[in-house]
Amino acid sequence: MPLKRHHKIMIGGFSTFLICVLIANSLFIYFLYGQLQFSYNRVEADIKDLKEDTQSKLNELTTTLLKTEEELNLLGSQIGSIDNEINLLKSSTSADFSGIIEDAIKGVVTVKTDVGQGTGFIISSEGYIVTNEHIIKGAKAAGIITYDGELHQVELIGKSEYMDIALLKISGSYDMLELADSDDVQIGEKVIAIGNPLGLQFSVSEGIVSGIHRPGLNEMEVYIQTDAALNPGNSGGPLINKKGEVIGINNFKIGGTEGMGFALESNSIGETVNEIAMLTLGQDLI
After folding, report:
1. What is the DSSP secondary structure assignment for residue 182, as one 8-state letter?
2. Catalytic residue among 114, 124, 164, 203
3. Selected catalytic residue, list 134, 203, 205, 210
4. CATH second-level architecture of 182-271?
5. Active-site option among 124, 203, 210, 235
6. pTM for the whole thing?
7. Of 57, 170, 224, 259, which has the fewest CB atoms closer than 10 Å, so is most exposed?
8. What distance in Å separates the CA atoms of residue 122 and residue 204, rounded to the nearest whole number?
9. Reduced to 3 states, what is the DSSP secondary structure of residue 84?
10. Is 134 annotated in the active site?
11. Strands ordered across the beta sheet of 108-113
């Protein structure tokens, strides 16, 4: 039975609609594919850029590490006889300190980084070291040179920028320096400042306590003023009394003046170190 005219119109309309749907669907798929391809190309380009940037940073870090290692090895190779150094130091200080320098120096270390160097001192026989935070600030690589001239890898345990204190760790067992009670420090008592042990700027300077509870850069009145000469290499090193105890960590001096150096008091050192240790190690160290 032949199709009637309205049946043909219906079939034709349906076919046209179906074709339109197929065309629209094809266009949508084509557009979607184009978008996916564009996104893929963009992601691939981003990954390539990221790889190149990462490789560049790795190359830069490797170069920095190698350079620092060379400098540390050079510094170690230039170390002279420690016995001669100690004898010279004994002869350059008064009788008050000639008997303690040999023991005190064993607890002092050189902190060498790719951006500079300073001093630190051992506060635990397990190899925990205190230094100034500004010595390691911005550094990508660092090492520790101990009394015996050995170069050690170092781990940053924690730091306080506000108090300018950093807690470091090296492996092994070492002689340590004891912290004194800074509340017992008296104006006029003799002290020595030790900096950069076994390095090119190795120095011990003698002076007296000129003031106590002075305000520092953080405006806290927890600094000892001393006229012991503080050179750039002394930063982070100990200020030591006649008992061989640390009464402060040499921190800064007033530029353009003589005999106006400042050291963070030992009680504040202990409190800051314990705060860092409690946060990172879950226990006090001092």
Report:
1. G
2. 164
3. 134
4. Beta Barrel (2.40)
5. 235
6. 0.69
7. 57
8. 17
9. helix
10. yes
11. 151-153, 142-145, 108-113, 116-122, 128-131, 165-169, 155-160
